[in-house]
Write a structure and sequence with these properties.
6 helices
Length: 147
């Protein structure tokens, strides 16, 4: 019995760490959407505050949502066409995603994405999310031109 207690304590410590390594998918945990594994993100994204890294993780698996939402931080002048392009610049020759570091330092980009994540969890449609984003963020600047 004395040997079993240390083993149980070790398992109690290791189990949450192992769970943190798994991919978060639709309807797992508290979310109705998928998040890409943090290990697939760049070092800068991995070191960013949780809201920022989660926004990047969301962007990877939810292009269909973010590509339909404009950004209002002024990044259209940088060639961005949607909130998605604040996170992903395109694909490399091998097909891997090329990340844009813009959202690492832009609270408006991240706030729009976090709002979208929250509204998806509330069961809102992309159209409803678009309307809410437009109503909330249009005061900050011109929207990106969606393609």
């Amino acid at each position: 019995m004395k040997r079993l207690i240390p083993i149980l304590l070790l398992l109690m410590l290791v189990a949450p760490l192992a769970a943190g390594c798994s991919e978060q998918t639709a309807n797992s945990g508290d979310h109705s959407y998928r998040l890409a594994p943090l290990r697939q993100m760049t070092h800068e994204v991995q070191q960013a505050p949780a809201t920022v890294s989660q926004a990047y993780q969301f962007a990877v698996y939810n292009e269909d949502v973010l590509a339909q939402l404009p950004c209002y931080c002024g990044c259209g002048a940088m060639g961005h066409t949607s909130n998605y392009s604040c996170y992903v610049a395109g694909k490399g020759e091998n097909g891997d995603l090329l990340f844009d570091n813009h959202a690492l330092g832009c609270q408006i980009c991240v706030d729009i994405t976090q709002d979208a994540m929250r509204m998806l969890d509330e069961g809102k449609s992309v159209e409803e999310i678009y309307e809410a984003v437009d109503a909330t963020y249009s005061r900050f600047g011109p929207p990106t031109v969606l393609q």
